[in-house]
Specification:
The complex is a heterodimer. By secondary structure, chain A is mostly helical. Helix content of chain A is 77%, strand content 0%. The model of chain A has no long low-confidence stretch (mean pLDDT 90). By secondary structure, chain B is an alpha+beta fold. In chain B, the strands form 4 sheets. Chain B has a 3-stranded mixed sheet. A two-stranded antiparallel ribbon of chain B has the order 2-3. In chain B, strands 4-5 form a two-stranded antiparallel ribbon. The chains are: A mainly alpha, B alpha+beta.
């Protein structure tokens, strides 16, 4: 049996999470939870709507008949029992709200508070949906665990913070974020993701999801998907980032107290000293933004291995 | 200065907690209604079935000679699209004679395809429980191909839509047998009311490595090969 869902679905699930996470990053920044950076408060709102809209568009291209007969797409709203129908409603609402919030923010108009909160709820729903879509499929044991939507939400938040941090840096010309706080939340999220992944693999390998669940897990762990899994998801996407975040978190914590005293000295002293202090911080941004890119790659590979490890409970061959 | 630092740390911790609570809350809000919905649907479906008839296939492995006439008849009558198989004869090679299993859609009493299809292309006939797929509504998302543990829904590359066994409901409505049943020379493949099929001695709904029957409650009764 060949693959049923391919790359387009992987990209769609990834972008759904990425956009939702970006929105929630700006939401969190706006509430002052991850520092008071004005860039982080805006950029996530700009990009979330377009990212999710683009991902959804790709989904339409993956359809068989629906692409040729677009009027059939209205039917997607018809079965309230289907997780996919729920998803269509959630995504449609989120895209509209996120685009509006993004537009208001861009025009520097005040965004109605209710809008922002509704958007945050829909963003969480979007992230959850991308996981539930696969988790409700009983006939695919590897998917059929309620840890899957939790993992997808955590990964959505993690990749969302990363893309927003990178784009804030690019779009707002190196404007500084509160790196210490961002590092801390990153450590929590990436740490949670590692624990969730470990929990899923543990439940698969102990046979709680049957022999097929274990076989899917083996496919990722030591089989055909092991290279991208260990190298790009575990290495580039989780372990290296969490180490860099932890190291920088402690450096920044030490730095914070130093800088306070330095600034007092520097403001009185030469221009040279001032630029030196700035350069020091610049270096830290670079390493953080590099691992941010790693987190995004890891998030993509996560969706990739989950979709491609979907072995059916019965492979169609009678034994 | 230290107190300022401390208050900052506290705020972050709280923020982390808040995010955690929000995530959990959204999951808690999101998951149960969906589960409840599915459960209530199943219950409703079960209740409906207890009062309504459910047709199903029965298949005797002792009688089947592996001629595949069921497959050919189905293909001819239902004009399969290239690349799709509504019915398949599975073969288990043994030391002695091979063992066969002719299987199509099992018209489950709890069909997984029907629950996942976003456009509602699947329906279960009130009067006989046949699970019918309407290809005209299908957008080709293939979600049902993951959901069905028996691989009954088949994707046609030409049409871009799913199709599957309909138990020849048009023929049944006209008082005829399904094409496969009609074609079976050994009378190994039969169909009828599941209440009757259940009574066949030794009939089971799961053999070999077939998926567990509790998953979708298939209306397919197999009389397994007796060791001779």
């Amino acid at each position: 049996m060949g693959e049923i869902w391919g790359w387009l679905i992987v990209i769609y699930l990834f972008m759904g999470g990425l956009g939702a996470g970006a929105y929630l990053t700006s939401f969190a920044a706006g509430r002052g939870w991850i520092g008071k950076s004005p860039a982080l408060q805006r950029v996530g709102y700009y990009i979330s709507g377009p990212i999710v809209a683009l991902g959804t568009l790709l989904l339409v291209f993956d359809l068989g008949q629906g692409l040729k007969k677009p009027w059939l797409l209205i039917g997607l709203l018809m079965n309230p029992r289907s997780m996919m129908t729920w998803g269509v409603y959630i995504l449609a609402c989120f895209i509209v709200v996120a685009l509006l919030v993004g537009f208001f923010t861009w025009k520097k108009k005040e965004v109605p508070k209710a809008f922002i909160f509704v958007g945050a709820f829909l963003a969480l729903a979007t992230g959850t949906y991308t996981g539930l879509l696969v988790a409700v499929v009983e006939a695919v044991p590897f998917w059929n665990t309620y840890l899957m939507p939790v993992l997808f939400v955590v990964s959505a938040l993690s990749t969302g913070i990363s893309i927003t941090s990178i784009l804030s840096y690019v779009m707002e010309k190196g404007q500084k974020t509160d790196e210490r706080k961002v590092c801390k939340i990153h450590i929590v999220l990436v740490g949670a993701e590692m624990i969730l992944l470990a929990a899923i693999f543990a439940s698969m390998f102990t046979g709680r999801h049957g022999a097929v669940g274990a076989e899917s897990a083996r496919m990722i762990f030591s089989g055909s998907l092991s290279l991208p899994f260990w190298l790009l998801l575990v290495g580039v996407g989780l372990v290296i980032p969490i180490l860099v975040f932890i190291v920088n978190y402690f450096k920044l914590s030490q730095h914070q107290s130093k800088v306070q005293s330095k600034i007092e000295v520097v403001s009185a002293a030469s221009y040279e000293g001032q630029s030196k202090a700035l350069t020091e911080e610049f270096d830290c941004s670079r390493s953080l933004l590099t691992v941010d890119a790693g987190v995004i790659i890891g998030g993509f590979i996560l969706r990739y291995v989950v979709i491609f490890a979907a072995l059916p409970i019965w492979n169609g061959v009678l034994k | 200065m230290m107190s300022k630092l401390h208050s900052r740390i506290n705020l972050t911790r709280r923020a982390v907690l808040k995010i955690g609570v929000l995530t959990t809350a959204s999951l808690v809000i999101g998951v149960p209604p969906i589960r409840k919905l599915q459960v209530s649907d199943v219950q409703a479906a079960d209740a409906a079935q207890s009062s309504h008839k459910q047709l199903g296939f029965s298949y005797d492995q002792n009688k089947c000679i592996g001629c595949k006439q069921c497959v050919y008849a189905c293909k001819k009558v239902n004009k399969w699209e290239a690349g799709v198989e509504w019915r398949k004869v599975h073969i288990i090679q043994t030391d002695k004679k091979p063992i066969f299993l002719s299987m199509s859609c099992n018209h489950c009493s709890d069909p997984a395809c029907l629950k996942v299809c976003p456009v509602g292309a699947y329906s279960k006939r009130e009067k006989d429980g046949i699970v019918v797929h309407n290809s005209a509504k299908c957008v080709g998302c293939k979600y049902c191909m993951y959901a069905c543990p028996y691989h009954a829904p088949q994707f046609g590359e030409t049409s871009g839509a799913i199709s599957k066994c309909s138990m020849c409901y048009q023929r049944i409505d006209e008082g005829q047998n399904p094409a496969c049943v009609e074609a079976c020379p050994a009378k190994a493949l039969q169909y009828g009311d599941v209440e009757e099929l259940k009574k066949i001695a030794g009939a089971v709904t799961q053999i070999a490595n077939l998926p567990p029957a509790e998953m979708t409650k298939p209306s397919f009764y197999i009389i397994p090969k007796k060791d001779s």
